[in-house]
Write a structure and sequence with these properties.
3-stranded antiparallel sheet; two-stranded antiparallel sheet; elongated; TPR-like_helical_dom_sf; mainly alpha; 5 strands; transit peptide; repeat
């Protein structure tokens, strides 16, 4: 068995140089007793002698100096004997004059002779293994050390410490040296080294350690978690799913819920909710109970992928399992339910959040208020608003938008204008286009064209970019109030400011002009408008209803000449008034 030296920092690669006064041993190596000089006392000489060891290996004298193991390569079996002996320095007899000879002589190093026997064979095997692996190793070809310590537990603890400190090369050399010496690291030590390689992104070395553990039957759930994470990062989540199937076939008893959580996480990041659902079902089929992390991953993935039903199912299963949901899970469920219009379930979840002592954020309040407003529950929406303010939170633009929308959907348009006025007075910095547009919608419904013009002027004065939607609401208010000339002025103002009118703009201003008997203006607008069937159909309907049949026929003829198709109502009007010559 190879001799082992505790605390060697180099491999046996330094030979002793020749010394002019040295004597030769029987094998031709020049050796001298240790001498620290005449002036040194015996204690110093003995201490220095203890730090130097002379080794005879295959006819050469080499020196190992203090404190680290000497080196072997990864795949050495550790069973081949090497001719190594120790010459104790203090056993060498003194010379006749009572003084020791000077220290060891050095010879020039002969590189070809440094690595031979099992060391050379191990290095060749490691190089061949690295080539076959096909991917770059973190540490390359590591050195092997002759280990004096034979306690596997102590060496495993040393390996754990090196791995946790991210000392990759030292940890790899110790791991390979233990294998070469016939020593087996513990499963904990192997997992630490595996985690170190995964952290550093060294996939080839991680797979090498994992295959060793699998071959020795040492792989644990933690091992599978680490290697699956590495495979997903390097080769994608489909490769991780395939490896999980293989692991379940070979070692199902060590596949725990944490392994499943790892694969669920990588599939969730890829937004593959179908694979996440499949893994969730397999978890139950294998009689494994989900953890808080499991349900956190499930709810988060399903909500992000728009699968609210699955998110609620996972949430309810968590309660049946006796697991209290985290704040993130409750927020995700509320967001999903409010988005799908399930405001009752959202309120129930909100109450559970409050009873658990959690403080909802402004985003949670806004989502519930918005959902209640869409459902026409304006009173509940304002209760939530008062709860928001009593919680010490300040309403933002989204809060006011949700409240204004709740009032508008409930038909309380005057209340919308009153609330908007209050916002303008107390929170004018929060006013934006969306809030103005909700107020303008109320003006349109009420026919409050003067109020609409005032809001439009405030928007211009405030430097807001006015869109076609805002102008359309004001023109619509003029149409409701039968103020065609005002509507036409707003339309001209709109085009003058460089805002392009859309189809809704043209329809609204044309209807206003028709009911105001502004026939010339109607024809002028038709000349400006790009060919559009809906616009021409609206003009013909209005003209026929106002009894302007001749003008309606003129517009209808033009419509057909430019290739536009009339709708059924337009044809009906034309057939009804076919014989009329008015």
């Amino acid at each position: 068995m190879a001799a082992v030296w505790s605390g060697c920092s180099t491999s046996f690669s330094q030979e002793l140089p020749p010394h002019p006064r040295g004597r030769r041993g029987g094998d031709g190596a020049r050796i001298h007793p240790w001498s620290g000089g005449a002036g040194r006392d015996a204690t110093t000489r003995h201490a220095e002698a203890a730090r130097t060891v002379v080794v005879f290996a295959r006819g050469r004298v080499r020196v190992c100096r203090a404190a680290a193991p000497c080196v072997l390569e990864p795949d050495v079996a550790g069973k081949e004997e090497v001719g190594v002996a120790v010459w104790g320095m203090d056993d060498e007899p003194p010379v006749a004059d009572g003084h020791r000879r000077h220290g060891l002589r050095r010879r020039p190093v002969r590189p070809a002779a440094v690595e031979e026997g099992p060391v050379a064979a191990a290095r060749s095997a490691a190089s061949a293994s690295a080539s076959a692996a096909g991917s770059k190793s973190e540490v390359g070809g590591s050195r092997l050390h002759f280990l004096e310590e034979r306690d596997e537990e102590m060496l495993s603890r040393r390996l754990i410490k090196l791995s946790q400190s991210n000392k990759v090369r030292s940890a790899t050399e110790l791991f390979d040296s233990m294998r070469a010496s016939g020593l087996q690291p513990s499963a904990h030590a192997c997992n630490s080294l595996l985690a170190c390689f995964v952290r550093r992104g060294s996939f080839a070395d991680a797979m090498k350690v994992f295959e060793f553990m699998k071959g020795k039957g040492m792989a644990t759930g933690h091992s599978y978690t680490l290697i699956l994470k590495a495979v997903a990062t390097t080769e994608g989540y489909f490769a991780a799913l395939k490896m999980l199937d293989e692991i379940e076939e070979s070692d199902k008893k060590n596949v725990d819920v944490i392994v499943y959580n790892t694969v669920i996480s990588v599939c969730g990041r890829a937004k593959d909710w179908r694979q996440v659902e499949r893994l969730w079902r397999r978890l139950g089929e294998n009689s494994l109970s989900g953890t808080l992390m499991t349900y956190d991953l499930l709810v988060s993935t399903f909500v992000q992928c728009g699968q609210s039903e699955l998110a609620v199912d996972a949430y309810q299963e968590m309660f049946k399992s006796g697991i209290d949901p985290s704040e993130d899970i409750l927020k995700a469920i509320i967001a999903s339910c409010t988005k799908e219009g399930k405001w009752k379930f959202a309120l129930t979840t909100f109450r559970r959040m409050l009873s658990a002592g959690m403080k909802p954020s402004i985003i949670v309040f806004n989502s519930i208020i918005n959902s209640l407003g869409k459902a026409g529950e304006d009173e509940l929406a304002f209760r939530m608003y008062h709860l928001l303010t009593s919680s010490g939170l300040k309403p933002d633009q989204y809060t006011w938008s949700a409240l204004l929308s709740a009032l508008y959907r409930s038909g309380r348009c005057w209340d919308v204008l009153d609330l908007f006025q209050g916002i303008k007075t107390k929170h004018s910095a929060l006013l934006n286009n969306h809030l103005y547009n909700i107020a303008l919608m109320s003006c349109e419904r009420l026919g409050q064209w003067e109020h609409g013009l005032q809001l439009l002027w405030m928007m211009e004065r405030g430097g807001l970019q006015i869109s076609a939607v805002s102008y359309n609401h004001v023109i619509g208010a003029c149409e409701v109030a039968r103020m065609p000339k005002v509507a036409l002025k707003v339309y001209r103002r709109m085009t003058h400011r460089g805002c392009s009118p859309d189809t809704f703009t043209h329809l609204s201003v044309i209807r206003a002009c028709i009911w105001g008997s502004l026939w010339n203006e109607v024809e002028d607008i038709l000349e400006e408008v790009a060919p559009d069937s809906s616009v021409y159909n609206t003009v013909i309907h209005g003209l026929c209803l106002r009894g302007k049949i001749r003008l309606a026929r003129k517009v209808y003829t033009k419509m057909r000449s430019i290739g536009l198709k009339p709708d059924g109502k337009t044809r009906s009007f034309m057939l009804q008034n076919l014989a009329t010559d008015y």
